[in-house]
Every structure is written in structure tokens, then in C-alpha cells.
Amino acid sequence: MSSAAAAVRQSRVSRGAALARLALRIGGRYVAKYPRILFASVERRGELRHDLALRSADEVAEELGSMKGVLMKLGQMASYIYEDMPATFRVSMSRLQQKAPPMTSALAASVIVEELGDAPERVFAEWDPLPFAAASIGQVHRAITRDGRAVAVKVQYPGIARSITSDLRNVGLLRRIVGAAFPGLDTRSLVDELGDRLQEEVDYVREAENQELFAGYYDGHPVIRVPHVVSELSTARVLSSELVSGEGFEELLGWDQHEKDLAAETIHRFVFRSLYRLHAFNGDPHPGNYLFHRGGRVTFLDFGLTKLFTDQDLSPLIDAVRFLVFEKDYEAFRAALERAGFLRSGAPVPTQIVVDRFGQFYGTVLQDAPMTITPAYASAIVRRFFDARGPLAPYSDVPRAYVIMQRINLGLYAVLGSLNATANWRRIAEEIWPFRNGPPSTPIGEAEADWLSKKSQKVLKN
Fold it and tell me: Any idea where the domains of the chain sit in the sequence?
């Protein structure tokens, strides 16, 4: 095995052994401390649990970051979706969003040689050997092309595809690890979905096509930007795109509330305009994939997982919104959910329970009024999604066509909740819903309407 191929622990045995050691360490620590926790005072019990959580989270974050692949993605997703995770865990896991341990500069250079035919210093006019971002599949370097363009070059970790396969064969152990690190999380559905997701993400040719789809559609948009791909410097394991500078999510959290509200509106518009108008969804909406600029401008990165939808896919979703929000026809709303596959046809539960259960996911658009999405609200949405004990649980499911969409919705709520974002989400949605085509409701909406008008005129001229 070459040194590059050994960069990521690949085999099922080696990765499984590392997982087992981690599980034993965490489990043993809890067993050893349990008597002290059981007989401690209420105040002291909380302190002991906090200390255990902190030590375990740091250990898990370090191990997942070094192993990449499925394991690291689990930590990333849990850090922004699972609001009820103890704060200590969230802080440790959030380190995985952009600051994962990188591979060496020599290993990154070896991938460039294999994929682009020469050393990076000769392929590019300038090459920074130190990555400025490192994530679960690859890491990103700054470079200048021979014709003077600044680019971000994503280099895939050697052996990552094989390591993902190894992780998926260790699915039982994976669930034990995640259950120990994130108590209460629905580990089965999360781990199973991540397997499918990551196997798609290792194909950078596919990601380049996805990214160009979004970049082309949003060309010239007033607040949404997607960097274009530099195709001649991109392959199955190297993806070069326009380099964009901006602030990260942590910096955004320090801006004033007005700026946070503008950024939240842009993210909301991007998610739903992409779904209803482009019929595509960017499937990995964690905060590390956004760059923020003042005035609500946001750059969207990472299109490794993109789900394309047909009119047939979207039809029952559009009907559900229309029947619930506008026509108040709850039987028709239920029928739309059944047609989509979210609810078993003929389930022996009253329609009002169906409305109460599924209606919560439409809470931001039920009222034509400003609404603040708080962390508590976002957390309640996540809990409802993972609730396996309610009266509808035996009769409801997330159909395969919509699994990615539901994860993105959870991620969207988590991000907007972190921002305490306020807007009239109903009015913004009415601009985008194809059965409404509502007038602009905000300054960003007015700018977007002007962009759409120019876009239409350009299409007519061509």
C-alpha cells in the first residue's frame, strides 16, 4: 500500500479496532463514575455529568477528525442539527465543521500529481501547501492559475472511498459510538443515510456538475453566490473553483441582529428557491459551507450531495402546502402526505392528529406575520422529527425521495435558530411558491425580482 493510500485508515479491521477502543474508553469511564453520580447531590450530579460529557466529546472529536469519512460527518451533522446535545458536545463537535486535522502537504501534492499530471507548483502559478479548510472528504488549498485566477482547490483524501466502505461494514459499532457520544440521537437513521450520502460525495466529477448547475442558475443574483468550477483543473479527486473570501458562521454570530436576519433570509431563499424553481437541493447545509458578507450576501459552497427532483416528486409537497396553509382542507392535506408516502394510507388515526404532527413542520408559514426562529423552536422541530413514540410513529415514514430534503430542513431550522432570525417567512415563501408568485416582501425580495426580470429578458433575447 502506498503512503498516500495509507493516509486515511482504510480497512474495516483497523477502523473498527479504533472505534472499539473509543467505545470501551467512554463506556468504562461512565461505568466507573456511575456510583459517584448516583449518590451525589443534584448540583454535584450535574457537575459530574458535565465533566464526563466534556472529556468524552473532546476524545470523540479528536478521533473522528483523524478518521474522516462517515465518522467525521456524523460529528459535523450532530453539531448543528442536534440542539439538545449538551453544550460541551456541541462545542467539541463544531470543531469538525472546518478545522479537521489535515493531511500533509506531501500527500496533497501526490494527489495533484496523480490527477493533474504534475506537481502543484508547476500546475499552478502559485500554490499554498497549507490548506485553509479541511473536512470529511477532502481539504482545500489556495492557488493562482497560470492565467491569473485565484482558485480554491479541493483535494480528496487518498483512500477515502475505501474507508467509507469500511465504516459502513462496521455499522453496529458505529451506532454504539454515536449513541455513547450523542445520547438520545436517532443513530440508526443517521448512520444509514450517511452511508448513501458519502458514497456519492467522493465523486468530484459529479460534484462539479452539481456546482455548475447552481452557479449558472444564480449568476448575477444580488445576494446569493455560488463559485464557478474551473473545469480544466478539476478531475474525479480534485475540484478547482473560484476563490471567494468571506466570514465564517462564528463571525456572523457576532454581527448585529439586522445583519443576522438578512443572512438568514438569504439562506432561506436559497434553500426554497433551489427546491421549487431549480428543482435541486444542496444536501449538506451545515454552517461550514457558508461564507457571509455584509448586507445579506452569502456564498454557498460544497455541492457533493445534490438531489434533483422531478415535477412528480414536488407535486404532493406543493399540494400539502396549498391545502394546509391556504385552503385549510385538512383531509386533502392528509391525502397529499399519503400520496408522497409520509403517511400510510388508511392509518387508523384521526386527521387532526395528522395535522398536529405534520403541521409543526409548516409552523413558520402558517401565520402571515413576523416570526423569530429561536434555538428552542428549532430543537422542538428536531425532536418531533426523531420522535418514535407518538401515535403516528407506526404509520409514518420518510420516503427515499425525500430523505435528503428532511435532513436539509432540519439543518435549515438549526442554522436559523442559532441566528434567532426574524422575518415574515410566509411572505417570503409566497414569493417563491410556484402556485402563488407573490410580490416582493422585503428589500432582498425586490432585488431578487429585478434579477429574475433581467434573467427572463436574457432568455428571451437568446
Answer: 12-99+167-200, 307-461
